[in-house]
Amino acid sequence: MDQPPRLTTESGAHVADNQHSQTAGPGGPVLLQDQHMLEKLARFNRERIPERVVHARGSGAYGHFEVTRDVTPYTRARFLAEIGKQTEVFVRFSTVAGGRGSADAVRDPRGFAVKFYTEDGNYDLTGNDTPIFFIRDPLKFPDFIHSQKPDPHTNRQEPDNVWDFFSLSPEATHMFTWLFGDRGIPASYRQMNGYGSHTFQWVNAAGEQFFVKYHFKTDQGIECLTAEEAAKLAGETPDSHQMDLHEAIHRREFPTWTLKVQIMPAAEAKTYRLNPFDVTKVWPHGDYPLREVGRLTLDRNPANYFADVEQAAFDPAHFVPGIGPSPDKMLQGRLFAYGDAHRYRLGINHTRLPVNRPHAAEVANYGRDGFMRGDDNAGLAKNYEPNSFNGPAETGEPLYAPLAPDGPSGSYEWEDREGDDFAQAGALYRVMDEAARARLVANIAGSLSQVSKDEIVTRSVAHFRAADPEYGERVADAVAKLRSRTAPPAR
Ligand code: NDP
């Protein structure tokens, strides 16, 4: 066997003894001069970085995206420019509400974040396993998450808080129907779809603008867990999603997803019967069919979890030429919030970390210094612009097309078009077969029946009734039955 390398301190001095701290004689106190011990303990104390406020628990893998259909009539993005073209990707999946040490098999949306390392810089598509979201205005996001996270007093997720917020936010009815349905607990990350959720902008070489919605359809087939199966698995194998993904890739059973998009010519956005930028709604397939784009394959486990998965930072504001934002308000809020979260969690130089830096493009700008600048900090190059020293210069070519203003500034509700907050929730209820509807109702009732205030239950049931009268009736009956058996605890 080869000689192992010498064990050293952080400064490179070799370590004579890694089992016994230095003491004043065999039975005496530990010495302050034991630099190796002090450094080892101090480093250990600093191993954890701040946990993500949401999506704290996650798993990730590298792979590639391959174009299978011609989409050049719709976007000039170079990584989508030819059939057969491959681009390296890193994907991080996650749950949302639980902390870093929580179980995987829980009822929660799943994050589905894809970083495309393109030749024009990184393109981050930071989606979920749901085509919709709970709310449509970023101003509501901290309140929404507070209602899902542990209560400030009891320090547990409180049904009161979850349902109070829901009952006062009718736009969440569609997403709650999704979440409490079968797809609210995927069997694994491999067996769920991913969605960009928001509407994005594509621009072709002629400058024509389109709005698109992304759908990553799992090629493994959708598999979900019932509440009972999940409770057992979460208790016995809390790392079930992590193990499943890691072991499948290790066995070389590489998971794949087929990327499809719905495409809307920009001119139709103004007159479409639904607001196409409202993230609480889908575009019905009958209006905008799915068109194939390519295949996402995950084929490499990261060598080191912390380096690549914990330090991964996705930012929906990272666009490449040919792709841009839409006026979706939630998306616009996320364009700020993600980069800001990374600057807090990882620092200003997080974009230079190996998993986050562009792999197929050069970074050339005048950003300098900051905590933990690990590269040469651009060496002797000038750090201001404009300059006379041939420094990086602007190109004058916008990445995407401008979005038009829509009237005087103010705090607005979305304009009212056909399709209220309940129609698509009802459509989803009716997509489900009878057994799935029964499970949906039982899941909702199991949680809603624990609420302490009648008014919260009444308002919540009214939302489900507005979605579909049968749906509402069944939830009301099931809640009444459960509540008659167990009086909710006084709060
Ligand atoms: P379609 O009949 O064309 O599509 C129904 C969709 O529902 C399919 O994509 C199907 O996914 C999905 N689905 C099936 N069972 C469930 C479930 N238990 N939970 C969540 N999704 C499920 O209808 P429309 O496009 O007119 O949409 C009708 C409703 O379907 C919408 O209100 C929405 O709630 C839901 N839906 C719509 C999507 C869209 O982008 N239009 C996407 C996903 C859901 P699969 O093909 O994988 O089985």
Give an overview in words.
- α2 (141-148) packs antiparallel against α3 (159-167), α4 packs parallel to α9 and α11 runs antiparallel to α12 (469-485).
- The protein folds into two domains: 58-133 and 184-348, Catalase HpII,  Chain A, domain 1 (Beta Barrel), CATH 2.40.180.10; 135-168 and 420-491, Hemocyanin, N-terminal domain.
- It is of the alpha+beta class.
- The mean pLDDT is 96.
- A hairpin with a 5-residue loop joins β6 (200-203) and β7.
- The chain is 27% helix and 15% strand.
- The radius of gyration is 25 Å and the shape is globular.
- Strands 1, 2, 3, 4, 5, 6, 7, 8, 9 and 10 form a ten-stranded antiparallel sheet that branches.
- The protein has helices spanning 35-45, 141-148, 159-167, 173-180, 227-236, 240-250, 305-310, 329-345, 423-431, 434-448, 454-467, 469-485; strands spanning 58-67, 86-95, 110-118, 121-128, 194-195, 200-203, 209-218, 256-265, 291-300, 323-325.
- The site of NADPH dihydro-nicotinamide-adenine-dinucleotide phosphate has 18 residues, from α9.
- The site of NADPH dihydro-nicotinamide-adenine-dinucleotide phosphate (NDP) has 18 residues, from α9.
What labels describe this entry?
binds NADPH dihydro-nicotinamide-adenine-dinucleotide phosphate; Hemocyanin, N-terminal domain; 12 helices; 491 residues; 10 strands; Catalase HpII,  Chain A, domain 1; 10-stranded antiparallel sheet; 27% helix; alpha+beta; globular; single chain
